[in-house]
Amino acid sequence: MLSGPARALAPRFLAPPPVNLHKTRTNHASTSFFQPRASPSMAALGSVLEGEEEIATCQGGSGVLEEGPMVSLSEWQGWGTDSPLPATVVAAIKEMMDLEREFGDKMKFGGVGSKIKGNLRVIDDKKKRSVYAKLSDPEQKLQYYTARQVACRLVGSRGYLCQKCWLPKEDCMCSRIVPCNLLHGIRFWLYMHPKDFLRQNNTGKLLWQLFGNQAATMCVFGIPEQEEIMWDEFKSAGKDTIWLLYPNVNSSPKSVGDIILDRSFSEENKEKPLNFVLLDGTWSNSSAMYRRLKERWATIWGEEDLPCVSLSSLGASVMHKLRPQPAWDRTCTAAAAAGLLAELDLHEEFRGLGLDKQADAIEDSLDILLDALTARRRRMGRSTTRKERHNNCI
């Protein structure tokens, strides 16, 4: 676990000096070589939900160097973040660039996660195995894994996906999304698994599309720069303002009504908002993210359990049609956020502050996303329904 400043990777895996950060083009990552058994903190990293929407299928995608080895800071932040360009991602980019130069060939990307295709796929896989095997520290392994995942999606999606809605540009839904303001007394943190980064049917992205990056902030699991930003904000706000929306079966999560508020959440009270952390990834991957949060919480505040809150009632999200959950009481990230706002609206301190309208805005955006994904699948001649995964939970 990170404790204090994030531990960097070994020097050979680090990015060039910061002056070059804005001049580096990003890369791809294949997941086949990562073995979750190699580290306890990696236990749930390799699971992929059956039938996940493909990320960027690049038809004969170009190499890393073809348009210049650059992903600028503005391009990185255009995907939905205000954080610096991660040094580990830059290092992964450089690794791929060196491979192209060494073999005089161009990388091609395609399929789920923008995996490398073509002649360099096997060579790259061997190099990744070698690098990963030499990393003895679990934190370094996690950072390397995440950097490769994120880098692959950046390069494979460049020029293909809309940066705002993460859909192919021909299916962009941005014109239909109506931004609105989230109550200043609330802030969402989208703790996102790297396999959900730039995923077309990801719903967490809807929150910052609606409310902006300051009200709904993305933090990718295993990106030190983003994780440090999040924890610095938490330490500044204080532990009593932080809640993880997670139905943890191993403890006793509180309901929204159990949250003890020591101040009024009016529009004027903006200094220390109530921070809600949403785990944005498949349910099979959420346990690793939960453990990481729990360990960091214990390091900072010396408490074994971080405060969890669960919703009293939550129906199946409309996204179940394309991305079914493993049980009826589990739903997509955006639907959980909408449910939270709706329940807070019933709380005396929040009543009449417009949270019901903000919850409705999230639900409307989910309908828009579902319509866009469904239209795309129909155009491609693919099924618009998914196999149910929770029959034994009915």
Any chance you could write out the topology, listing elements then pairs?
Layout: H1 73-78, H2 87-103, E1 108-110, E2 115-117, H3 120-134, H4 138-157, E3 186-192, H5 205-211, E4 216-220, H6 224-237, E5 242-245, E6 254-255, E7 274-280, H7 283-301, E8 308-310, H8 333-345, H9 355-379
Parallel strand pairs: 3-4, 3-7, 5-7, 5-8, 6-8
Antiparallel strand pairs: 1-2
Helix pairs in contact: 2-4, 8-9
Structural commentary:
A hairpin with a 4-residue loop joins strand 1 (108-110) and strand 2 (115-117). The protein has helices at residues 73-78, 87-103, 120-134, 138-157, 205-211, 224-237, 283-301, 333-345, 355-379, and strands at 108-110, 115-117, 186-192, 216-220, 242-245, 254-255, 274-280, 308-310. Helix 2 crosses helix 4 and helix 8 (333-345) runs antiparallel to helix 9 (355-379). With 394 residues, it is of the alpha/beta class. It is 35% helix and 9% strand. The strands form two sheets. A six-stranded parallel sheet has the order 4-3-7-5-8-6, with helices on both faces. It has a two-stranded antiparallel sheet with strand order 1-2. The chain is globular, with a radius of gyration of 21 Å. The two termini are 37 Å apart. It has two domains: 11-160, no CATH class; 171-393, no CATH class. The longest helix is centred in the last third of the chain and has 25 residues, at 355-379. Mean pLDDT is 78; it is low at 1-61, 325-329 and 389-394. It catalyses: a uridine in tRNA + S-adenosyl-L-methionine = a 3-[(3S)-3-amino-3-carboxypropyl]uridine in tRNA + S-methyl-5'-thioadenosine + H(+). Residues 158-382 form the DTW domain. Keywords: S-adenosyl-L-methionine, Transferase, tRNA processing. This is tRNA-uridine aminocarboxypropyltransferase. One of its GO terms (molecular function) is tRNA-uridine aminocarboxypropyltransferase activity.
